[in-house]
Amino acid sequence: MSTFDLPLAGIRVIDFTQVMMGPVATQMLADYGADVIKIEKPGTGDLSRTAFPNDPAGLLGPVYCSLNRNKRSVVLDTRSAEGKAAVLKLVETADVEVNNFRAGVMERLGFGYEELSKLNPRLIYAVGTGFGLTGPYAHKGGQDVLAQAMSGVMHRRSDDSLPLSIYSTTFADYSAGMHLVQGVLLALLQRAKTGMGQRISVSLLDSMLAAQTQEAAAQMMRGREVNWGAMPLSGVFATTDGAVVLVGAFKANPLLDISNALQIEDLSQDPRFASHAVQVANKAALHAIFRSRFATNTTTFWLDRLEQQDLLCAPVRTLAEALADEQTAINGMVLEADGEVERIRVVGSPIHMEAAPVTIRIPPARLGQYTEAVLTELGLATARAAE
User: Fold this and answer.
1) Distance between CA atoms of 197 and 176, rounded to whole angstroms?
2) What is the 3-state secondary structure (H, E, C) of 92-107?
3) Could you give the angle at the alpha carbon of 187 between the alpha carbons of 184 and 193, nearest 5°?
4) Hey, what domains does the chain have and what are their CATH numbers?
5) What is the distance between the terminal CA atoms of the chain, rounded to a whole angstrom?
6) pLDDT in tens, 174-201
7) Stretch 122-149: mean pLDDT, rounded?
8) Phi, psi torsion values for 18, nearest 5 degrees
9) Is the whole-model pTM more than 0.90?
10) Which residues touch 19 (CB under 8 Å, ≥6 apart)?
11) Using CA atoms, how far apart are residues 311 and 257, in angstroms rounded to an integer?
């Protein structure tokens, strides 16, 4: 498919972001046709380039590769007069600017919203922050784990007896990145009506609060805790060769069906478990019964038994197992391409557009690989661009 047929073809994005929240947003824009020009600082570039410090020389690193396909890397010293002039020239040609610096950084560089919107009133100025553009935490360093802690996500566990811990996937970064994409697309739609750009912002904190929308409403409106992971008929149970996750919900009498699957007497007739309220009160005893049964046979055996009762269940897999799953391949969730040094293998887009399939059009770029090409496009002297 030609790049010109993709939905964001013709949209130019100036990308100041690094690490994850910003790059995951700009990668999605790039996947669907936007010309994403990634501005990186001399010498080091995006911090994620060196996330694997022991990689052999010349390799880009899997963390960087995972979030930077279909972008053009340009190295500019934004503190120099020449670098600043090049950025401003790019802004004149851009539709979107994206950054995820702390509050005040872009303003100190001379690239704040007020300055750039005067230069290009149609510019959509997208900002990703830790905690918001203003307020007591605006200048606090934002990071995924901090957002987990400050939003209440870290405090909420399926069982209060479990220790507080860090969620091992960058949930806040990814969620905020997706919200940042949504903001950019909404602003582009509004610009089509008004002809004017605007500033949009997303924060890690807000994204984590939004992810808890049901729980938050229950807390604010009833003063009650809602914890879907703590439901008495749901849980993770070890088998002889792995583990099964069970969700006993959306049925008239799920405990009867669970009892049938586990080949035990009907626990829904036991006074300790005869209603949801007593199931909650006696969850420890109920789960002890579940654990003892699941521990007697294999994961495959129990999944078959549970599915015969039309119960929601799944095996607990490693990431490597999930990536190797036939369904993952059928869904097209692994993208591959030849890089300059090694084969690039990364996760694809979760959005499947029949008329705009995602491919690796531009493999993750070496630091500054497209500097000369981009600056030459802007009409700057080839000699200066090469320098």
Assistant:
1) 21
2) HHCCEEEECCCCCHHH
3) 150
4) 3-212+326-386 (3.40.50.10540), 243-315 (no CATH)
5) 35
6) 999 999 999 999 999 999 999 999 999 9
7) 96
8) -150, 170
9) yes
10) 46, 47, 48, 100, 173
11) 8
